[in-house]
Design a protein that fits this description.
The protein has about 250 residues and is of the alpha/beta class. The chain has two domains: about 40 residues; about 200 residues, Alpha-Beta Barrel (TIM Barrel), CATH 3.20.20.370. Helices cover about 45% and strands about 15% of the residues. Strands 2, 3, 4, 7, 8 and 9 form a six-stranded parallel beta sheet that branches. It has a two-stranded antiparallel ribbon with strand order 1-10. A two-stranded parallel sheet has the order 5-6. α8 links the parallel β7 and β8. α6 runs parallel beside α7. The structure holds zinc ion. Zinc ion binds next to loops.
Length: about 250
């Protein structure tokens, strides 16, 4: 992170120095570092600001199914039934505000043997990238407090839509949280039907993949839960197990 900020400031300084003699160069020096910084903030897999784990090491036909944005009173119980029926384990990256409304669902997730993980307190999709250090800390601490009150102890974090922040790496490290991305996702909000989301989430599947799907009202009604069922069925057809990897298995 420091390197990106230093390069950005150095570019600005150089641009000021040459702006009279070489205006085109000055423009490039001014804006190119901004573009690089924007890439590392907004590209979900960029590693320049925060180390994001995108896969896990395994020699078996195993994948990590992760479900974001819950818990949800309609979807979570149905998803838990599907996971049980398929002998699958998953990680639920839950939003603190939702967990505060439905603590029983958080306990049900953990009681069923799944992992409860951290997906911020308010899911600030549009403003997380520019949140102050204090606000990033509040997003992390408020959700952790809610989750701990249910008995869960979140160790892994996923940023909203994978969008990062200049202060995130330090804030996560101070709280012992590991940042997890994905290797494939359903992008359900932009799908017309569940098969489309399931096929996108399982495209190019290989051992150690991290699959991202969603629950809750942001997912179109016809796709909610149905896409997860199709993914579980596809994984079964291909002989894959859904597991929750140990921390030492994660790779960037
Ligand atoms: Zn989310």
């Amino acid at each position: 992170m420091r390197f990106l900020i230093i390069v950005n400031l150095a570019g600005k300084l150089a641009a000021i120095l040459v702006c009279r003699t070489a205006p085109a160069t000055a423009l490039a020096l001014w804006f190119t570092p901004d573009a690089v910084l924007a890439y590392h903030l907004f590209a979900p897999h960029a590693q320049g600001l925060v180390r994001v784990h995108r896969r896990f090491k395994t020699l078996r036909r195993e994948v990590w199914l992760t479900i974001d944005d819950g818990p949800d009173p309609e979807d979570t119980p149905r998803i838990l039934e599907l996971l049980a029926a398929h002998g699958a384990h998953a990680t639920f990256f839950v939003i603190g505000e939702n967990a505060a409304i439905h603590p029983g669902l958080v306990r049900a997730i953990a009681d069923a043997g799944h992992e409860v993980a951290h997906h911020t307190h308010t899911h600030p999709l549009g403003t997380f990238w520019c949140a102050s250090p204090a606000r990033v800390g509040r997003e992390l601490d408020a959700a952790t407090e809610v989750l701990r009150s249910t008995g869960a102890n979140p160790m892994r974090f996923r940023a909203p839509a994978g969008i990062k922040n200049l202060w995130l790496a330090q804030a996560l490290a101070a709280r012992g949280l590991t940042c997890v991305g994905w290797s494939a996702r359903g992008l359900e909000r932009w799908c017309a039907e569940p098969r489309e989301a399931a096929s996108r989430a399982t495209r190019g599947l290989s051992p150690g993949a991290i699959l991202l799907l969603h629950e809750g009202p942001r997912v179109p009604a016809n796709i909610r839960v149905a896409a997860i069922l199709l993914v579980l069925e596809r994984l079964k057809e291909l002989g894959y197990q859904c597991v929750v990897p140990r921390p030492d298995q994660l790779v960037a």
